C-alpha cells in the first residue's frame, strides 16, 4: 500500500474534509480515471511539501471513489472513507447542505422551513455516524502529538469525538462559511446547537475567514454553552493563488476560449461577468433583475453590453437547487426575449462547468458582479482582479467576507437592493479606463495578501503553538 511507512509512525499533519483533492471515475473499459481537484486547500497543503508525512482524509463520494477504495487504489497521502451512500446522503444533503448551510447563510423561508421532525433526527444520526467515521480514521492515522486540521460544517463534531479518542493531538477546525448570528442559530433545536458547538470546541483552535464570522461564533457559544471553554479563535482570510491563476489563465485552452467568447459577446460591447455555482446564496436571480433594471434605467447600454453569467450545476440532489437553476434559466429567457435584438443577446448563460472558459471571462470582463446574499469569503472577487487583462470594475456585496478586504476599491452593494445594484452596474460600466486599471491593481494586491500556502502554514503554526486539550 502507499502509506506503509507513514502507517508505522503515523502522519504528522492531517487534513480532513468532505470533498477531497482527487476523485475517480470508472471508464467504460473498467479502468479508473483520476481527476484532481483545485482550490485553496489543495495548494495550501502542497506548501508543506510531499515529504512532510501529511495525510488527507476525505469521503469517497462517487461510484468511482468507492470502486477505488474497493480495489485498494489510491493516491499517496490521501485516504478515502467509504461511508455508505445512504449515510452520506443524509449527512451531506440532509444536515450539512439543507440545515447547516441554510443556517449560516440565512436561507430559510421561515413560514415553512425549517421543520425539525423525525426525518431530521434520522439525518442527524447519520451526521453523527459520518463524523465518527472521520474521527476514527484520524485517530488511527495520526502520529503522537500530530496536528489535525478539520475543515468545514460537514465535520463539526469531529474535533470533540477525536479529542476523546486521542487527547495527545492538536486539533484545529476551519469554517469556510459564514457563521450565523445567535438569534438565527437559535432556530436549531437546543440539544443540536449544543452538540455542534461542543463538538467544535473540542478543538484547540478554531479558524474563520473574517472577524465577523468569528465574533458570531463566539456570541453563539456565550448564549448556548457559556463561552469558548479555552478554545482559541483565529481569523485567516484566504487569498487568491496568484501564481497558479496567472499561469493557468494564459494556457492555450483559455486563449482559444477568449476568441470564442469575444465573438459571442460581439464587437465593441462590454461584458458584465459573474461566475458561481448555481448556489442559493450567490443571488444570481437578483443579479439578473439588476441587469434588467440597468437596461431600463440606462437604455444607452442596450446592444452595448452583455451579461455573461456562469452558473455551474451544484448540489442537484436537492430540489431547491434544481428549482433555483430553473428560475435562473427562466429569468434569463425572459430578459433575452424582452430586450434582445437580432444581433444582440443580452444575457449569455453558461450552465456547463468549464473552468478554462470562466478564466477567459475573468480576463476580458469589464465588470465583475459578485453579489451574494452572504458568503464566507468569495474567491471570485479576489481572482478576477489578479488575471484581468485591462482592468475590471468590481461590484461587490457587503455581505461577502471579501468585502472587508476589498471594499475600498470595489463598488459595494446591499445584495437585496436591486435598484442600488443596477446603479452600481452603471457606475462600473462608466468607470474611466485609467481609474479602473488603478483600482484593479490595488484589488489584486489586497486579494493576494494571504496566498493559500501562507494561509495554511499560519494555521498549522498557530495550532502547533497551542497546548493540546
Ligand atoms: C463551499 C464549502 C465547501 C464546499 C464547496 C462546494 O465553498 O465551504 O466545503 O466544498 O462549497 O460545495 P460542494 O457541496 O459541491 O462540496
TrEMBL record:
Belongs to the glycosyltransferase 20 family. GO terms for molecular function: alpha,alpha-trehalose-phosphate synthase (UDP-forming) activity. It holds the Pfam family Glyco_transf_20. It is an enzyme of class 2 (transferase). Keywords: Glycosyltransferase, Transferase. Its EC number is 2.4.1.15, 2.4.1.347. It comes from Streptomyces achromogenes. This is Trehalose 6-phosphate synthase. The keyword Transferase applies. The keyword Transferase applies. The lineage of its organism: Bacteria, Bacillati, Actinomycetota, Actinomycetes, Kitasatosporales.
